[in-house]
Specification:
Residues 20-220 form the Neurotransmitter-gated ion-channel ligand-binding domain. This protein is α+β, with helices and mostly antiparallel strands and 408 residues long. The protein is 36% helix and 26% strand. Strands 1, 2, 3, 5, 6, 7, 9 and 10 form an eight-stranded mixed β-sheet that branches. It has a four-stranded antiparallel β-sheet with strand order 4-8-12-11, with no helix packed on it. The longest helix has 57 residues, at 284-340.
Amino acid sequence: FRSMQISEGEGKGEILPPTIQKIIKGYNKYLRPFFDNGPVSVGMSLDIASIDTISEINMDYTATIFLRQRWTDERLCFDGNKSLSLDGRLVEMLWVPDTFIVDSKKSFLHDITVENRLIRIYPNGTVLYALRITTTVACSMDLTKYPMDKQTCTLQLESWGYNINDVMFYWTRGNDSVRGLDTLQLAQYTVEDHFTSVSEAVYETGRYPKLVFHFELKRNILYFILETYVPSILLVVLSWVSFWISQSSVPARICIGVTTVLTMTTLMMGARTSLPNANCFIKAIDVYLGICFSFIFGALLEYAVAHFCTLHQLSSKEVPKKFLESLSLELKLQLMSNLVSSEPVTVKPLTSKSEDFISPMSVMKRLFCIFDCFHVKNPYHIDNYARFSFPLSFIIINVLYWVYYLYF
């Protein structure tokens, strides 16, 4: 037990007021309250001042909080009916809980203009200890429904060295122990729900008290509708313009198809800039952009198929004519050779046994008939079918997409 003076580094030998001297006299800050009489109960409450950033890339959020802790120390009882508010620097002379924030990546205590700490002692020995902290806390996120996702993050408070036999944590007002979220304005999220819970952390060194604050964040989709969904839909509609352009206008149709494909590729790359690069999630926005890209690329392939069928139809009309001309020329040559020879010319009857000239023609006709089954009689009808099938299938897929990701 040492004399009641502030340490040389801070107080420089200044004497404490008599009331504080009387309270602190014989006080040992290295021993917790009720050292031999069971655990000390520490009540906690939070005020969320702000949630600055919520990062999908780093899977964390940064928040500024006011942490308030209350406990009773029978060694600090004094006569009177008013509480004593002490300078925050006097906390070095008192026992305080060793509370820490679980999953905190980086935290700091504000110290402008002085350290933002508050110590208040009540006549019955109750101590109020308040801190202003900014912390970056890890938050595991499921991005499979991004940007129509909901994320549940937590803020966990534990005791570092005191186990449940030494310290017990509790929320002072239950779910009302955390305030500030109702008036909080976030850029991309809306706080839908929040609640508190009490549990224990089990480690190799023992069981420790834990308080958990859960809050559910719903992402605002309006930004993504204007930034990604509407442009991608307009690009798909733009690719359909080629169905109303003549098939003979090759440069116009190719230009529309290639331009929309490249623009859609740029849009897909831009949509991933705010997300983790090495991410195993197949997100909802990736699915939609993939659907739009497929429709745009399909419109480009549709013109390639239609143009090929048009050229094939023109060539197929000339092939039988040339084939018949070659056959007639062969017949004439054979008849002339028979006339020159001395052998009498015998005309074979057109039966199944006469295979010299009839069989090749019948085989070729059958081949042309088989090929004609897969042949488009009028290639210009392909554009007519596309004008109806592409928009209808796109609407059906959109309905299925939005119903699935919004309600399932």
